[in-house]
Amino acid sequence: MNELIKDVHIAIIGAGMGGLATALALAKQGFTHISVYEAASHLGFVGAGIQLAPNMARILDRLGCWVEIEKEAVDLKETSIRQGDTDTELTHVDLRYIRETYSYPHMVVHRASLATALFNACKRSPSITFNFSTTISPIHTFSPLPTFSATPRYSPPYTVTCSILLACDGVKSPTRTSLLTALNAHADILDTSQAAYRIMLSRAQLTPFPHLLALLDSQAVTRWIGPSRHIIAYPVSSHTIYNISTVQPDTNFAAAPSATYTTRGSKTSMLETFSDFCPRVQEMLQLVPDTEVCEWKLRVHPPLPTWIHGCVALVGDAAHPTLPHLAQGAAQAIEDAAVLGVVLSKCPDTSPESINKSLKVYEKVRKERAEILVELAAQSGRELHLGEGKAREERDRVFREGGAEGKVPDKWADREVQGMVYGFDCVEIAEGCFEKVFRAL
């Protein structure tokens, strides 16, 4: 690393998965002045389960987080894809080959475990400073030095000037809006007409029901599919919690403001949505306390013309939000972080021109891949949600005949797609192509 570049001020907006991973990746590369700005007063980690695919695990290991995360994670050995109404198994896919093939297993964990491990690693680095309870205004300048206003909750606003600004501020990213406006472009949020319930059932809740407790004690992902809906479930937190995530048509957000992404859900509505699903699903949904039903609106935006303007770059959901059907949202944000660590460490000097070119190398390595995976997730959702008809009959035939070889319509479980996703080492690619791509810009 150039000795001057390591001391530049790098500002990161947002302390979600992408922001934490980006800060840590930069610190691991030797950067000394990293400031993270977060609107929340603290990182009270909530949420549901999250999947740790090998492409994510590989990066977490390099960042020094994997051992801590792995302790609470559940190693997946198999997946069962089933008809939602009858509970009939359409296919069974063996996942045990993944560890041997990609050097890491496919594991699942509570989202809080992943975020806490990243945050703890960041706190151990003297190079990273967190600024909580601080909101950020739209960006004032993008180059030669990015500037923005930071407003602490209980203090006057102040202006921040940095050499590099990385926007990890999510699907509602104000930075994305500012960046595209400056380029006379736009990318409006797309309504997917889909929403999701995220449910966590404890061991205590499941213990009275041996057939449900068996799911918690398994090392399996189970997916129940039906017209326009599906449910995916698996154990997390060392088999103490059963994580259930649903996708269904949006009815509660359709008339809501575009800024609304979550709402207190109705248990009655949830049960009605899945009323034709099998008794096993019904029993689990009945266990959810009335006050713990929460629904998320699933929104994305079309591919952006660019992620870069001057010395500012978009990261994670700010750049490429995705539907959850491929379980790669967090993994792709963490790939972004790892690549940013590589390309910025290789920047030959501190000039805005070199920083901009280095960020463009990041975009070159990441943009096409991320957008392909976003589209694969959408394709998978369309396949899983087919209604009655010839297309569904053909899908089910492929499920029945292809499971043993891992050739299935569910892209998440398809072995060829897994090879493309899990076998990709973004750090190796970035390190190998940086010089050539940088020179060509």
From TrEMBL:
<keyword id="KW-0285">Flavoprotein</keyword>
<dbReference type="InterPro" id="IPR050493">
    <property type="entry name" value="FAD-dep_Monooxygenase_BioMet"/>
</dbReference>
<comment type="similarity">
    <text>Belongs to the paxM FAD-dependent monooxygenase family.</text>
</comment>
<feature type="domain" description="FAD-binding">
    <location>
        <begin position="8"/>
        <end position="375"/>
    </location>
</feature>
<dbReference type="GO" id="GO:0004497">
    <property type="term" value="F:monooxygenase activity"/>
</dbReference>
<dbReference type="InterPro" id="IPR002938">
    <property type="entry name" value="FAD-bd"/>
</dbReference>
<keyword id="KW-0503">Monooxygenase</keyword>
<dbReference type="GO" id="GO:0071949">
    <property type="term" value="F:FAD binding"/>
</dbReference>
<keyword id="KW-0274">FAD</keyword>
<keyword id="KW-0560">Oxidoreductase</keyword>
<dbReference type="Pfam" id="PF01494">
    <property type="entry name" value="FAD_binding_3"/>
</dbReference>
<dbReference type="InterPro" id="IPR036188">
    <property type="entry name" value="FAD/NAD-bd_sf"/>
</dbReference>
<protein>
    <submittedName>
        <fullName>Putative monooxygenase</fullName>
    </submittedName>
</protein>
